[in-house]
Design brief:
Elements: E1 6-11, H1 16-25, E2 31-37, E3 48-51, H2 59-66, E4 70-73, H3 80-85, H4 87-105, E5 112-116, E6 130-131, H5 142-160, E7 165-170, E8 172-174, H6 186-195, E9 201-203, E10 209-214, H7 215-227, E11 232-236, E12 241-243, H8 244-255, E13 262-264, E14 275-276, H9 279-282, H10 293-306
Parallel strand pairs: 1-2, 1-4, 2-3, 4-5, 5-7, 6-14, 7-11, 8-10, 9-13
Antiparallel strand pairs: 10-12
The structure holds nicotinamide-adenine-dinucleotide.
């Protein structure tokens, strides 16, 4: 055991949000970062890496060995589309795997358990409504259901074991490092296809809208949550709605892409639109999203031009 003030375990630390969090949190020399993931990190991370499935029976032993005082739980089946095709896998990872982590976590002396749920897929939809954390959840996909279920488990274990917990409900996070070949993350997917001068498909009419938040603003909020031992449930979002066709148009301009999108049927489980309220998160340590959409898109495209970490 070292003298570090914070021993933080980040599950899913090799993924998009996880890598950005590890990079930022490891810059603070009071933090000792551990990453647990089934995938190797794609970039050089200043962290102790363990290749393990969150569903493994070895989790309990691993957690006892590392003995973190904070866990940030990101590892998940993170695609709505995959959850619709394979709800059993989605449940297995997002509920079973998460519970496997949580159950063993209750045996530790944790000062915080931070869970990445979903803001975009948990509330359902109602045109014109901006959802806040007090609204009743009404998930419309197996992914939303599994995230919501684990929120219930976390609330239960949190009160039963006096475990300080945080539920983060992010909107659509985008930025450098997001997999452009994945099932989710339109900015990177569209951007990469445009850069390669390939056709871009929009699922739906293009008028579907989401709340897009830049990765640095997500990391910034988590840093504040961790630094101040904050608990509770928070939407983590920009507070702005943007249509898919607007994202397409902005990227088209940045990249000077010459083609129109191919329109296809919307995918099962995808809702038409979601708007989220970030006032509760904004009251936390003066956090507010700093990156404007256009600035974030430009940063993402610059990075996509140079990166080769996927494929
Ligand atoms: N990116 C977004 O817009 C967004 C929005 C809302 C919520 N979230 C949630 O935030 C978290 C991180 O999302 P992301 O965009 O970084 O996704 P990601 O797919 O890039 O990262 C997820 C990581 O989890 C790992 N993982 C998957 N199954 C695992 C398992 N069984 N055992 C161990 N590791 C496993 C993957 O290897 C990957 O590195 C997820 O829980 C996701 O549901 C993301």
């Amino acid at each position: 055991m070292t003298n570090t003030a914070n021993k933080i375990l980040i599950t899913g630390g090799s993924g998009f949000i996880g890598s950005a969090l590890v990079s930022k949190l490891s810059r603070n020399k009071n933090n000792e970062i551990h990453v647990l993931d089934i995938e190797e990190p794609k970039i050089n991370l200043d962290a102790k890496y363990e290749k393990m499935d969150i569903r493994s029976h070895k989790i309990q032993k691993y957690l006892q060995k590392v003995n973190p005082n904070k866990i940030i739980h990101l590892a998940a089946q993170a695609s709505v589309a995959i959850s619709s095709k394979d709800p059993i896998l989605d449940n297995d990872v997002n509920v079973g795997g998460s519970l496997n982590i949580l159950k063993s976590a209750t045996e530790l002396n944790l000062s915080q358990f931070v869970f990445f749920s979903t803001g975009g897929a948990i509330y359902g939809e109602e045109v014109g409504k901006k959802f806040n954390e007090d609204n009743i959840v009404n998930p419309q996909s197996p992914y939303g259901i599994s995230k919501s279920s684990f929120e219930n488990y976390l609330n239960y274990y949190s009160s039963k074991f006096n475990l300080p917990s945080v539920i983060i409900r992010p909107s659509n996070v985008f930025g450098p490092g997001q997999n452009p070949f994945g099932e989710a993350g339109v900015v990177s997917i569209f951007g990469k296809k445009m850069l390669d001068n390939e056709p871009v498909t929009i699922f739906g009419t293009g008028d579907e809208y989401r709340d897009y938040i830049f990765i640095d603003d997500v990391v910034d909020f988590i840093e504040k949550i961790i630094g101040n031992n904050i608990t509770g449930t928070y939407n983590l979002c920009s507070g702005q709605k943007t249509k898919t066709i607007e994202i397409f148009g902005l990227l088209k301009k940045i990249i000077d892409y010459q083609h129109e999108p191919i329109m296809s049927n919307s995918r099962e489980g995808d809702i038409f639109g979601i708007e989220l309220d970030n006032s509760k998160a904004s009251k936390i340590s003066n956090w507010k999203p700093k990156t404007k959409l256009l600035e974030g898109l430009n940063k993402t495209i610059s990075h996509l031009k140079n990166e080769n970490i996927y494929k």
